[in-house]
Specification:
The complex is a heterodimer of chains A (105) and B (244).
Chain A: H1 2-13, E1 18-27, E2 37-41, E3 46-48, H2 56-69, E4 73-77, H3 82-87, E5 94-101
Chain B: H1 3-15, E1 19-26, E2 33-37, E3 41-45, H2 49-65, E4 69-75, E5 78-87, E6 92-96, H3 100-111, E7 115-119, E8 136-138, H4 142-146, E9 155-159, H5 164-175, E10 181-184, H6 188-200, H7 205-208, E11 211-212, H8 224-239
Parallel strand pairs in B: 6-7, 6-9, 7-8, 9-10, 10-11
Antiparallel strand pairs in B: 1-2, 1-5, 2-3, 4-5
Helix pairs in contact in B: 3-8
The chains are: A alpha+beta (105), B alpha/beta (244).
Chain lengths: 105, 244
């Protein structure tokens, strides 16, 4: 959290809403450990990482719908998942990411 | 996340205070959160007092290992998935004694991702030229310098000065702190004298037992960089809960 806190402050001070995504489960050779975080602004900007670049785009997309609905969401990415193939979790691992909206200011 | 939790989490991170955030990621009450400090102090609500209490108990392990964990908990006939996210204070290495071993130790510590702080009142040793790589160089007596530096569960502490006047007051501070690792350079005989001096200062044998001395893994090397590597290796072991 420490590494994305400044970024959260910056976006919130610009009036944007922010979602945080956390790796809450890993199987196999997942590239980032449990607790790894990325943050996404309502403008679609990203900071931090949950997979070393494999699924960040898809997480950002999910994050924007979490911001729109306000409802947190648990999302699974893995080799058996068609979308994960297409966004390329090439390490062969699987991860689960919990995405939640942060309160404004 | 609600603003009470976010503000308190932010304050803990700024104060360099260890805290665990428990979040229900699947099951009833998804998104509910509880901040947990050591000794089962909490803020927030997972749903019921009983569930909060159980989560606080589970968090105890995370306070030791610093590793995030996910747990399935049976609660009122339903399975809940709770994620325990550890927010540890930033890892740092405090080195007492701006000696040659310290220069190499700082290099290794940086490679390991630790923030580095070097303290030595002897201005001939504590020069910015010798310690350009350190995050902080403080040319003061340890008692004065350490009054400004929080020593917490992710702090690694090493005395290298070879001078009891400098090392002992620093060890007094370290032994009273929750530092993850405390090492002191010197032979077994030097350490015997050090233990006697610390007992004299009123520290308990149990406290003094925390000191790793002779410091570092027994790699056999005598050169400054080899000693520094032996200490760095012991720090890595301590980081992962191994006592080598």
């Amino acid at each position: 959290m420490r590494d994305v806190l400044d970024q959260i402050d910056r976006w919130q001070s610009e009036g944007k809403s922010v979602a945080v995504a956390t790796v809450v489960k890993v199987w196999g050779s997942a590239p980032r450990p449990l607790g790894s975080k990325m943050v996404v602004s309502s403008d679609g900007e990203m900071a931090g990482s949950v997979s070393g670049g494999c699924v960040e785009g898809a997480v950002a997309e999910e994050a924007r719908s979490v911001l729109a609905s306000g409802e947190p969401r648990l999302v699974h990415f893995g080799v058996s998942d068609d979308r994960a193939w297409s966004v390329g979790l090439s390490c062969g691992g699987e991860i689960e990411v919990f995405i939640e909206a942060l309160p404004t200011g | 996340m609600n603003s009470e939790i976010l503000n308190e989490l932010r304050a803990c991170i700024e104060r360099e205070q260890l805290v665990v955030l428990a979040t229900i990621v699947a099951g009833a009450g998804v998104g509910n959160q509880l901040l947990i400090w050591p000794a089962e102090q909490t803020l927030g609500d997972l749903g019921t007092p009983r569930l909060n209490q159980r989560a606080a108990l589970f968090a105890e392990k995370a306070f030791q290992s610093f590793e995030a964990k996910r747990r399935t908990i049976d609660h009122q006939g339903e399975q809940l998935e709770i994620f325990f996210d550890v927010h540890p204070p930033p890892e740092k290495l405090v080195v007492i004694g701006a000696v040659h071993v310290a220069i190499h130790l700082i290099e290794f510590a940086r490679a390991l991702g630790l923030r580095t702080i070097v303290i030595d009142p002897r201005t001939a040793f504590a020069t910015p030229e010798r310690f350009a790589a350190a995050d902080q160089l403080i040319a003061e007596w340890p008692a004065a310098a350490l009054a400004r530096i929080p020593i917490h569960e992710s702090t690694y502490f090493v005395t290298l000065s070879h001078d009891f006047k400098i090392d002992l007051p620093a060890l007094e501070v370290a032994l009273a702190s929750p530092a993850r690792y405390i090492g002191a350079l010197g032979s077994t005989r030097t350490h015997e004298r050090r233990v006697a001096e610390l007992l004299e200062l009123g520290l308990s044998a149990e406290q003094i037992d925390r000191i790793r001395a002779p410091v570092g893994l027994d790699l056999g090397g005598r050169r400054a960089e080899e000693i520094a590597l032996a200490i760095a290796a012991q720090i890595v072991a301590a980081r992962h809960g191994r006592e080598l």
